[in-house]
Design goal:
about 500 residues; alpha/beta; about 15% strand; globular
């Protein structure tokens, strides 16, 4: 007992020391040139006077970024930040990756733009390479410029192909901000007070942490929710109940035939929410029984970020009819795509349809280079190794702090939800979430926020981060949580 007490005392001492001192930021061999452009105050004034007021900035004192290198960002003063949000899950292989930059530089000396009414090499090379990454008959690609555009187009394809109109999505989902996709996105804090979503139904979100059903064996993740579960092996009461909610909606709120069903394999903006194992598979079956097609929104989850598989839908053992993608496919370059089967693609051939910039020579060169780098740099493998390591380290943080209610995710698609306490799971007040989030930024680590209440810290870094980076990020989070604890007398 005495030895145990001594060990516990040492543990308390080591934790106290860790809380009182900041860890050293991992080294970086890149040093940006001193910034000499527009000043911070002038930029803030222009943002206020000339940029649309809906374009919000992160943080009370927004950071003014001027350079990026792999997993690092640098502000106008030269301060370095570990980027654990990747430009909203967009920088896949690393900021200004040299091989992607070289591919763009090479294309810039040859051909910038013609539109796809003419043939040019890069779009054909890229299309063949991209569809080779997809299973089954997903072989026809339509290039666009953003995730919203891709989902917009996927809705059109589903409706044309099926001859039906109604589409189902999940509550807490985010599928874009275009007038067409507003109905698919089902988060109240992203919803204007206007008519939206004609022909779109939103079913109960199968959230095993915050939803009505969930337990400690539901997720395909190294870390499970703290909610208890009495399910026998191979059974999932939560999954069955959420499927029944979907079927009930299909029975009562939809016509005999529907157009389709949208789902992110893991909800991104919604806070890295994972569904119970088996849910998506049974949901696809129910939708197809109603004549609908199944659309996988891979805008945030695709290109190996989930680690175990290249596409998020593969982690659910399902085969979609349409796949939408964006963000990481261009590593920050504005590009997106819809991939579908030849049969569904034919449904659009009755009239002219066109996208001016989709698949232009520059974006095709960038996209092709990103695919090469993902393989050469073993980014998917790193998502397994570093992502799993980070999830397990974050689970330790959850066990240390009462306000950390949940840690969830797979690969480098991670969420951490802040609560008042683990028993009620009530959302932590926004000002307190902001204190933790701001504190992390001030100490050199950038993370996102998400979820209906803005209480989920979103950790979705460039796929090149190391375990050393993960240790630093976790240490800074722990320090910010300890600061919150002391400030609030907890």
């Amino acid at each position: 007992m005495l030895a145990l007490a001594r060990n516990c005392g040492k543990l308390r001492c080591s934790r106290a020391l860790a809380y009182s001192t900041l860890p050293e930021m991992p080294p970086c061999d890149f040093k940006p040139e001193p910034y000499t452009g527009m000043g911070y105050d002038e930029a803030r004034k222009i943002r206020k006077d000339n940029l649309h007021s809906s374009l919000v900035t992160y943080y009370r004192n927004p950071v003014y970024m001027t350079h990026g290198h792999m997993q690092w960002l640098f502000d106008s003063t030269g301060k370095r930040y570990l980027d654990l949000f990747a430009g909203i899950v967009t920088v896949s292989v690393g900021h200004c990756h040299p091989k992607v930059k070289a591919a763009l530089d090479d294309q810039l000396t040859k051909l910038w733009h013609t539109t796809s009414i003419y043939m040019y090499p890069s779009i054909h090379e890229y299309a063949e390479k991209l569809v080779s990454k997809l299973p089954g008959d997903l072989k026809m690609v339509y290039f666009v410029n953003s995730g919203s555009e891709a989902n917009d187009l996927a809705m059109l394809m589903a409706r044309l192909h099926t001859g039906s109109f109604d589409i189902v999505s999940l509550r807490n989902a985010y599928h874009g901000m275009s007038p067409y996709t507003f109905g698919l996105t089902a988060l109240g804090n992203w919803t204007y007070n206007m008519a939206r979503g004609f022909g779109i139904q939103n079913t109960v979100n199968p959230d095993v942490f915050r939803g009505p059903w969930g337990g400690s064996h539901c997720r395909d993740s190294p870390v499970q929710t703290i909610r208890k579960c009495d399910c026998a092996a191979g059974q999932c009461h939560a999954k069955d109940m959420y499927i029944e909610q979907l079927k009930d909606l299909l029975r009562h709120s939809c016509p005999a035939k529907i157009a389709g069903f949208f789902a992110e394999p893991v909800q991104g903006v919604g806070g890295a929410v994972q569904f119970p194992k088996g849910f998506l598979k049974e949901a696809y079956e129910a939708v197809r029984e109603k004549g609908g097609v199944c659309i996988a929104d891979e805008v945030q989850t695709g290109f190996g970020r989930m680690g175990s598989h290249y596409w998020g839908f593969e982690t659910h053992d399902v085969m979609p009819d349409i796949v939408t993608m964006a963000k990481g496919m261009g590593n920050g370059f504005p590009m997106a795509a819809v991939v579908t089967t030849p049969e569904i693609a034919k449904s659009m051939s009755g009239v002219l349809h066109f996208n001016t910039f989709g698949g232009n020579p520059m974006s095709s060169a960038v996209g092709s280079a990103v695919l090469d780098v993902l393989e050469e740099d073993k980014c998917q493998e790193n998502c397994v190794d570093t992502g799993t390591y980070m999830l397990k380290e974050l689970a330790k943080v959850r066990d240390e702090f009462q306000i950390v209610g949940d840690v969830r995710g797979k690969g480098l698609m991670i969420g951490l939800e802040l609560v008042t306490d683990k028993e009620t799971r009530n959302p932590l007040p926004a000002d307190q979430v902001g204190d933790v989030w701001e504190d992390m930024k001030d100490m050199g680590v950038l993370v996102g926020k998400g979820g209906l209440y803005g209480t989920a810290l979103r950790i979705k870094p460039p796929m090149c981060i190391t375990k050393e980076d993960a240790d630093f990020g976790v240490a800074i989070l722990r320090k910010a949580l300890q600061n919150h604890k002391e400030k609030n007398g907890l």
